[in-house]
TrEMBL record, chain A:
GO terms for biological process: post-translational protein modification; protein N-linked glycosylation via asparagine. InterPro entries: Oligo_trans_STT3, STT3-PglB_core, STT3_N. It comes from Penicillium argentinense. Its cofactor is Mg(2+); Mn(2+). The chain crosses the membrane at residues 21-43, 91-107, 119-138, 144-163, 175-191, 211-234, 246-267, 273-295, 307-331, 364-384, 391-409, 415-437, 466-488. This is Dolichyl-diphosphooligosaccharide--protein glycosyltransferase subunit STT3.
From TrEMBL, chain B:
It comes from Penicillium argentinense. Subunit of the oligosaccharyl transferase (OST) complex that catalyzes the initial transfer of a defined glycan (Glc(3)Man(9)GlcNAc(2) in eukaryotes) from the lipid carrier dolichol-pyrophosphate to an asparagine residue within an Asn-X-Ser/Thr consensus motif in nascent polypeptide chains, the first step in protein N-glycosylation. N-glycosylation occurs cotranslationally and the complex associates with the Sec61 complex at the channel-forming translocon complex that mediates protein translocation across the endoplasmic reticulum (ER). All subunits are required for a maximal enzyme activity. The keyword Endoplasmic reticulum applies. GO terms for biological process: protein N-linked glycosylation via asparagine. Belongs to the OST3/OST6 family. GO terms for cellular component: oligosaccharyltransferase complex. The chain crosses the membrane at residues 177-197, 209-228, 262-280, 292-312. It comes from the Eukaryota. This is Oligosaccharyl transferase subunit.
Length: 742, 326
């Protein structure tokens, strides 16, 4: 009876419906799992925005929600980059803020009382569910087997390579951009397959959305033309290709130019030239195809050769002339540094200094992708087996993205989708042949023998099937073990590595209970409550967004690094003597200086460890006044203890970090736990600053810049007087005596 | 013009030797010697060039070019330094701004290195004038420290900062005609070769297996961290401090060249086993053979994956997962 009812469900038309329903249920479960595994940080800590950049996005979103779209578009922010300000509305990718603004207003319209903070915190997990669905759609285009799509969706939902950028609270552009990336590629594949203007236009629409959301859109801008170019080289020109590409390019470029930050870049910047070039090439090829119908062989050949040579020559010289005359901007630094890997370190230290721009060591790949990393090449190989247009796309994407991910850690994010597609293809091919009950019969063998035609060496023989149940059990069993381990790995990685808000640090007490270190917020709220609304805070640029977001005070520099000179000014103030720094601080109206110091707690991401980058960036602008060499001892060591160089000891950063630090320890016992050294017995003296606040674990130290002395003395004299030191007799003037001649 | 110059030089040399006339002639002397590049100095001429009353700037590079000293930066920098001195000397001379470029090799001037207590090379010293319009009170030479390889452009801007304001001869990098010509030749040669060989080459270029192999190798190399080795110049292997070799670098963000090759090989074995299971095995017609192949490939997959997990555990001590054999 039971078998009979199963038969009804699984066979015929209702079987199809049952499977469809099952698929939907599975997909919804995957989406739910994707959302759920990203909630560790909310459950462990609280609903809080993470890290650095998200704080700016959060602040911008609040501005958007409060002031409306148009004033957001024209937003000039005078509370950052003091005294320059920032044309924020024109220098950001608004997609993320607009998305959460729209969601917020819809929820409000449905009378669901929701806080904008919660919308922002939960946006990334929500979109990751959508990404899993988009992944299903994309992979389904690559394979006949529906299991491939489901596997890909499951992989994408929980793989740490994507979770790393989309846990709850990491409210960054990537949160929605990866969904848009995958979905745009799905639409593009659909457009190429069908040759329909509708799919092409939809691709352009989502491409436009992607441009508004993330600077990584350049990846799509170059990958799609490359796909078309390779297809042309393979002699696979078709009207489908022509229709989809020209539709996408024309509409997509117009769409992307609507974003103020992008503006005219798509026609003036070398990053975008390949798309334009392929657009032109496609027109020529289409014209040649058109002419071919009217001419016979030899004439056509001649025409084609001369046309190719002519256009190539013209295009090349045109490009050179336009580049030299400056109409087309050269490659942007970030993009260029992907190809010339030594470029950033020499020319743009501010890019090289960011830790997520470092090259990727192999453990990071395995950490982020687990067993997908070795299914990935197998999946790419399977794509070579069919090699339809969409498989060419997978192959190009796979090779390019693995190169990019090798050069820069953060681009692991663009590699992850294609790894999931390829790995799902490989896994589903295995499962499809090993997870079937029926054995091969002589009939199928004979049938398989009939279509021996494929040219590809490994698949020349026809598919027969698996004979014994034992083989099936072995392979399926081991694959299930790998899959289960993958799930365990993903959960472990997410829980241990990617769920810390980094604003709040967690540590374990000896008894095993969790201890929360909340110095950042403590200090930012101190600033918020104890300083004037307009007090300018100087800190290294890493903390600019957080100060703006949490303390709501104007800053000198922030993570938007648009003005290198201004950052170098801060670097110079931090790395120079007080006598040099004080005028700089006064000129920039600085009221408070904030430093991060991890010496007490052993927190290694502190300012003294970033100090050399400050020096380097300052040296780039003032090579005579700040020299990196002076911060190293004669033997080339970077030291902070007794052996530190005088330049180091007199630098403002050093003094602020260790000011009064020895008072925590018995005399002469002060230890810096990050650098593991014993410090000099005396505390550095600060003349022009005074300590205003130090957080519980000394992670954040805030110093107030003194006003000018009331009696017109310089600060070192004033401090000496206050300490009761005898005033030094005015020593005789140095230098040779000169005859007065007035 | 030229004969006059050399005549003057002869006179000035003569007079220099005979009458030991001070600096003006010294400048002329070195200026003329250095027509096509920096003057080669030794201990005595270095002392002569840099003695106190001088009305010119002297820029001296102290270097150690001989292969024995193994100073790579010296040799790399040498051509840039030549270029710098040559383009300065060839540029339009200014009447009052006098600069002499000199090179002192360690072989010829050990005494100078000892006197200046120099432990490293190369070192660049800039001696400002002590008399004349640009004289400085502080006659101590300015020192440029080579922390990383630099080009002539950076050096030019450094020297420019220490010279007084005003027009200076521009830095002219000669066009490398050789390179252009060779590039064009190679390009045309490739095109010709391709045209001639196209009946033989095209089948190879259009071979799907070849492309598959190339793409897979590229992917394996990139995902096993080859770019990290390339960018960070990671060592191939390192000793473990007890005379042996340690194949795996300690730490999660660090790796050796050989380590990545091992990992790439592991990935390759795993991928190949997967391909075999997915594509080859279902196409085998022999029942026994198929059973054997499934067992072999399944075992290879399992054992190698277990090895990979154990290797990863070495890199990341807290990693809790493993598979039986390793």
């Amino acid at each position: 009876m039971a078998e009979f009812s199963l038969d009804v469900l699984l066979k015929g038309n209702s079987g199809k419906n049952t499977r469809g329903l099952l698929r939907i249920i599975i997909l919804l479960t995957i989406a739910a799992a994707a959302v759920a595994s990203r909630l560790f940080s909310v459950i462990r800590f609280e609903s809080i925005i993470h890290e650095f950049d998200p704080w700016f996005n959060f602040r911008a979103t609040k501005y958007l929600v409060q002031n409306g779209f148009y004033s957001f578009w024209d937003w000039f922010d005078d509370r950052t980059w003091h005294p320059l300000g920032r044309v924020t509305g024109g220098t950001l990718y608004p997609g993320l803020m607009v998305t959460s603004g729209v969601i917020y207003h819809i929820l409000r319209f449905l009378t669901i009382p929701v806080d904008i903070r919660n919308v922002c915190v939960l946006l990334a997990p929500g979109f990751s569910g959508l990404t899993a669905l988009a992944m299903y759609l994309l992979t389904r285009e690559m394979s006949h087997s529906p299991s491939a799509g489901l596997l890909a969706a499951a992989f994408m939902g929980i793989t740490p390579g994507y979770i790393s950028r989309s846990v709850a609270g990491s409210y960054d552009n990537e949160a929605i951009a990866i969904f848009l990336l995958v979905f745009t590629f799905f639409l593009w594949i659909k457009a190429v397959k069908n040759g329909s203007i509708m799919w092409g236009a939809l691709t352009a629409l989502f491409y436009g959305y992607m441009v508004s959301a993330w600077g990584g859109y350049v990846f799509i801008t170059n990958l799609i033309p490359l796909h078309v170019f390779v297809l042309l080289c393979m002699g696979r020109y078709s009207s489908r290709l022509y229709i989809s590409y020209t539709t996408w390019y024309a509409l997509g470029t117009l769409g992307s130019m609507q974003i103020p930050f992008v503006g005219f870049l798509p026609i003036r910047n070398s990053d975008h030239m390949s798309a334009l070039g392929v657009f032109g090439l496609l027109q020529l090829v289409a014209f040649a195809e058109f002419v071919r119908a009217f001419l016979h062989g030899k004439q056509f050949q001649k025409l084609l050769t001369s046309m190719v040579l002519l256009t190539f020559g013209l295009g090349f010289t045109g490009l050179i002339i336009l580049s030299v005359s400056g109409v087309i901007a050269p490659w942007s630094g970030r993009f260029y540094s992907l190809w010339d890997t030594g470029y950033a370190k020499i020319h743009i230290p501010i890019i090289a200094s960011v830790s997520e721009h470092q090259p990727t060591a192999w453990p990071a790949f395995f950490f982020d992708l687990n067993f997908l990393i070795w299914l990935f090449p197998a999946g790419v190989f399977i794509c070579f087996q069919n090699l339809k247009d969409e498989h060419v796309f997978v192959i190009i994407y796979a090779v390019l993205a693995s190169y990019f991910a090798g050069v820069m850690v953060r681009l692991m994010l663009t590699l992850t989708p294609i790894v999931c597609v390829a790995a799902a293809l490989a896994a589903s091919t295995i499962l499809d042949s090993f997870l079937v009950m029926s054995k091969p019969t002589p009939e199928t063998q004979a049938k398989a023998n009939a279509d021996k035609s494929k040219a590809f060496s490994s698949t020349r023989n026809p598919v027969v099937g698996i004979y014994s149940y034992f083989s099936k059990a072995v392979v399926t069993g081991s694959l299930i073990i790998y899959l289960l381990m993958f799930v365990a790995h993903c959960t472990w990685v997410t829980s241990n590595a990617y769920s810390s808000p980094s604003v709040v640090l967690a540590s374990r007490l000896p008894d095993g209970s969790q201890h929360i270190i909340d110095d950042y917020r403590e200090a930012y709220y101190w600033l918020r409550q104890n300083t004037e609304d307009n007090a300018k805070i100087m800190s290294w640029w890493d903390y600019g967004y957080q100060i703006g977001g949490m303390a709501d005070r104007p800053t000198l520099v922030d993570n938007n690094t648009w003005n290198n000179t201004h950052i170098a000014t801060v670097g110079k103030a931090m790395s120079s003597r007080e006598e040099v720094s004080y005028p700089i601080l006064r000129q920039h109206d600085v009221d408070y200086v904030l430093v991060v110091f991890g010496g007490l707690l052993g927190y290694s991401g502190d300012d003294l460890n970033k100090f050399l980058w400050m020096v380097r960036i300052a040296e780039g602008i003032w090579p005579d006044e700040v020299k990196e060499r002076d911060f190293f001892t004669a033997r080339g060591e970077y030291r902070v203890d007794d052996g530190a160089t005088p330049t180091m000891k007199n630098s403002l950063m050093y003094k602020m970090s260790y000011y009064n630090y020895n008072s925590l320890f018995p005399a002469g016992q002060a230890v810096d736990r990050v650098r593991g050294v014993r410090l000099p017995a005396e505390s550095p003296t600060l003349n022009t600053l005074e300590e205003a606040f130090t957080s519980e674990n000394w992670i954040i130290r805030i110093f107030k810049v003194k006003d000018l002395d009331n009696f017109g003395r310089d600060h070192s004299n004033a401090v000496a007087f206050d300490k009761g030191l005898k005033r030094k007799r005015a020593t005789k003037k140095k230098g040779p005596r000169v005859l007065r001649t007035e | 013009m030229k004969p006059w110059n050399s005549l003057i030089l002869c006179f000035s040399l003569l007079s220099g030797v005979l009458a030991t006339k001070p600096s003006v002639d010294r400048f002329e002397k070195y200026q003329t010697l250095s027509r096509s590049g920096p003057v080669g100095l030794d201990s005595t001429s270095f002392a002569e060039l840099t003695t106190a009353p001088r009305d010119y700037y002297a820029v001296v590079l102290l270097t150690a070019l001989d292969a024995r000293y193994g100073c790579i930066m010296c040799r790399e920098f040498d051509s840039e330094w030549e270029l710098m001195a040559r383009s300065w000397n060839k540029g339009t001379k200014l009447d009052d701004l006098k600069v002499v470029f000199g090179t002192l090799d360690f072989d010829h001037g050990k005494a100078v290195f000892q006197k200046l207590m120099l432990q490293t090379a190369p070192v660049l010293l800039l001696f400002p004038p002590t008399i004349g319009p640009f004289a400085k009170l502080d006659a101590e030479p300015v020192r440029y420290d080579f922390t990383s390889p630099i080009g002539a452009e950076q050096l030019y801007s450094w020297i420019g900062r220490h010279l007084p304001e005003g027009p200076k001869p521009p830095l002219v990098r000669p066009v490398n005609y050789m390179r252009i010509v060779s590039a064009i030749t190679i390009l045309m040669g490739t095109v010709t070769l391709f045209t001639v060989l196209s009946p033989y080459v095209l089948p190879i270029v259009q071979n799907r297996n070849l492309w598959a192999a190339v793409s897979l190798i590229a992917i394996l190399l990139f995902t096993s961290g080859q770019m990290f080795n390339h960018i960070r110049k990671a060592p191939y292997v390192a000793g473990d401090g007890q005379g042996g070799i340690s194949y795996f670098a300690g730490g999660f963000q660090n790796q050796f060249g050989m380590e990545t090759q091992i990992v790439a090989a592991i990935y390759a074995i795993l991928s190949f086993a997967t391909i075999a299971l997915a594509l080859k095995v279902p196409r085998m017609e022999d029942v026994k053979g198929q059973q054997l192949a499934v067992l072999i490939w399944g075992a290879v997959l399992f054992v190698t994956y277990s090895l990979l997990l154990s290797v990863f555990k070495v890199k990341n001590g807290g990693y809790p997962f493993y598979l039986p054999p390793f």
